[in-house]
Amino acid sequence: GSTWSSLISNTINNIYLVSGVSENSIWAVGDSGMVLHSINGGLNWVKEFSKTGYDLFGLDVISDSVAFIAGDNGTVLVTGNSEYILDIQEEDNTNTQIPSNITLYQNYPNPFNPSTRIKFSIIHSDHVAMKIFDILGKEIETLIEEELSPGIYEINWDASTLPAGVYFYRLQVGSFVQTKKTIILK
Predict the structure, then answer these.
(1) Structural domain of residue 62, as residue ranges?
(2) Are 67 and 120 in a shared domain?
(3) Do residues 157 and 172 lie in contact, with contact meaning Cβ atoms separated by under 8 Å?
(4) pLDDT at position 9, please?
(5) Looking at the domain assignment, is residue 1 inside a domain?
(6) Cβ atoms within 10 Å, residue 125
(7) Which among 88, 123, 144 is the end of a domain?
């Protein structure tokens, strides 16, 4: 450690723990449910979708694509191919980060290549679906379809297998539906 380089500079969250099992695959966790993953030794980082807004302090990396993450209020996350396959936490009705409106934000960056982040908020527990459609209205991909608690969420969408063009992402929370446009550049 005679010289050090700053690898993560575009986050406003605190990072509490960084770990990896190989030179290339590195995970980092922090406050407000932040989970970062790099597959190129820290040169680029992707903010992974996390179903929690709680601070995350524990990280045990098992392989390049699997990590166990622990945090406040009994939060336990298990990753698998960059998707969360387990989320155990007790309801905390004192969460001060419950939004006042259901909102679908514009993705960032937009236009993008090959991935973008889609942020949304929900005000009560409900079935939530986020789907991607092409310009003809054909459903291309389902990013999430499950019951979620109130809070603010962010999904990383990797569209590297899709051709350039105009696409739409649709948030459905119960009877609420909102759609936004995005552009993939190649």
Answers:
(1) 15-88
(2) no
(3) no
(4) 59
(5) no
(6) 13
(7) 88
Q: What is the spatial distance between Cα 150 and Cα 86, in angstroms, rounded to a whole number?
A: 18
Strands (E), 10-150: 15-20, 26-30, 35-38, 46-47, 56-61, 67-71, 75-80, 83-88, 103-104, 115-122, 126-134, 139-148
Cα-based torsion angle of the residue sequence 67, 52, 48, 39 in order, rounded to the nearest 10 degrees? -20
DSSP-assigned letter for residue 136? T
> Is residue 7 a part of any domain in this protein?
no
Mark whether 84 and 29 lie in a shared domain.
yes
Q: Give residue 145's pLDDT.
A: 92
* CB-count exposure of residue 115 (10 Å: 0-12, 13-18, 19+): middle
Ramachandran area for residue 14 (φ above 0: left; ψ -120 to 50: alpha; else beta): beta
Q: How confident is the model at residue 88 (pLDDT cuts 50, 70, 90)?
A: very low
**Mean pLDDT: which of 41-55, 66-80, 170-184 is highest?**
170-184
Examine the pLDDT at 77 and tell me if it is beyond 60. yes
- Is residue 130 in a domain? yes
Is residue 52 within 8 Å of 84, Cβ to Cβ? Answer: no
> Which residues, listed in sequence order, are joined to residue 61 by a DSSP beta bridge?
67
Residues 106-132: pLDDT tens digits? 998 999 998 899 999 999 999 999 999
- Structure tokens, 1: 């450690």
